[in-house]
Specification:
- The protein has 309 residues and is α/β, with parallel strands linked by helices.
- The chain has helices spanning 5-12, 19-31, 36-40, 44-51, 55-61, 66-77, 92-98, 130-145, 158-168, 188-191, 213-226, 240-250, 270-275, 292-298, and strands at 81-84, 105-110, 119-123, 149-152, 172-176, 199-203, 229-232, 255-260, 279-283.
- It is elongated and about 70 Å long.
Amino acid sequence: MANEVVPLLHLMSTKGVGPRALARILDRLRREQSTLRDLLKMEADDLVEQFGLNIEQAAYLRGDQEAAQQLAEALEEHTIRTALRDDEFYPPQLDAALADKAPPVLFLAGSLELLGRRGIGFSGTRNASAEGLRRTEELAAVLAKRGFLVVSGHAQGVDETAHRAALEAGGATALVLPEGILHFRPRPCLADILSEDQYVVVSEFPPKMPWSISNAMQRNRTICGLVEALLVVEAGTSGGTWEAGLEALKLDTPLFVLDFDDPPPSALGNASLIKKGGVPLRCHQGEAPELGPLENVMNIPDTNQRKLF
């Protein structure tokens, strides 16, 4: 893949070549056993005829690759790996779950082997209640101690709390970004506790692409595809966490939703997600959540320590 990074970045920077077009081009190259370097050597008319590009895109691809070369050097400087769908470090569970909607390329940093672990996703509002954050910390820590990869979106609130709790428990976490990986800077609560063997950073976007709402929604779908179950801590009746819960249901990713005795205003969508098919995890005041359903789905094998709490 090393020799293909520059042409890949050049292709990704072509105006109008988004994930679907990129996937289509890569799939055709794979079928024909051709490379990205072969693609960029083609005549403009052939690029238009065979790959469905317009003449402006074809002309751009035939042009100078200096910007892509500089970008490739920046990725190498930050020890960032690139994985296409048929590469060693591309998570097979993501490919299987999302099929033709799977990201055609991932940019990865940290301990890539962690993506081979069984994962559980955490999703929740940026403005979670104190009780929601306490439950997040409690659950992420115990799951991390059991060897599960805690997967979340590196946002304020529930996400950063789940990442931190997993790391502090001696476990591992995956930070799935809604932006290009060259924008990644660990949140202050994580910066001092990240060690290379405990985390992996994942981005499906061009390395310098800025954050956007649509990226965040797309990132949430990728989280659902990476994990064996998604745990919603607090969801509104719309927004990113709500959509993540719906996406999990659509993908048949087991969805678990905290069911509070007295839901805080930041969790008003939880009951609706449960009605739509999410499995409730009862949270009685002063008691640990009732995690029998989650234990069953995650199939925790040690019968002597079967209960998470």
